[in-house]
Amino acid sequence: MRQPAISSDDLNQPPHVWRHRHRRGTALLLALLAGCALATTSAAQTNTAKTADKTTQTVRLFDAVAKHPGPSWQKYEEPLGGSEVNRQQRETAFIQEQIPKGDSFKAWKRLYGVVAQKLPGMPMQDFINQSLTPLVQACGRENFTATVQPLANDYTLIRVVCQNTPHIPVGSGYGEGVGEVGVFWFGKQGDTLVKIYQQWRGSKFSASQAASWPVSSEEVDTMTQRLSTTALTPAPRS
Fold this sequence. Notes:
34% strand, alpha+beta, 238 residues, 8-stranded mixed β-sheet, 21% helix, 3-stranded antiparallel β-sheet, Protein Transport Mog1p, Chain A
């Protein structure tokens, strides 16, 4: 699910006010996950994935510098040239989303994104919860599964499978008959929380039958392995 446009109303509020606005969504996410198929895996289970072209991007995100892989369709010789790019930045928030060149953000099938928010005092778990709440709400516990992979440096990788999104109005790109698979990396550097992800969207499918997914299991495994190499370092002082 795409990130909403940055809200200046939220970002101009102190962090404790912003967190209070999202508290109900966080509680709902935790409740839904309690009833979903949830698993934990180790890095060793994904390291055997076929490695794609080693294309990397580096971007400064407030307190952090992120070094991360590009999307699955990216070629080495064209880091951004093979993508349509939507980029927004405000004082404390950054979003950059990419889709394959020639595709539409209104009807995307593959979406890659980098999100960063500077939120002093926000725990990583709260950031993960508020990031995934919209997708969990759209899917419902009956359609949502997640695999959580803890990484070094307190990074977290989460792979989600949402076989249908019946709990959101049709016309948003989602709704009855639309499913999604996604891989999400989460990290924190100083007061900056970062999410880097790729999502694949298509017709609803059976979570237990990978052949029915809107993406091959090989591509998902490859992006899982690639995103696991993402790292944050302190940004140099200006």
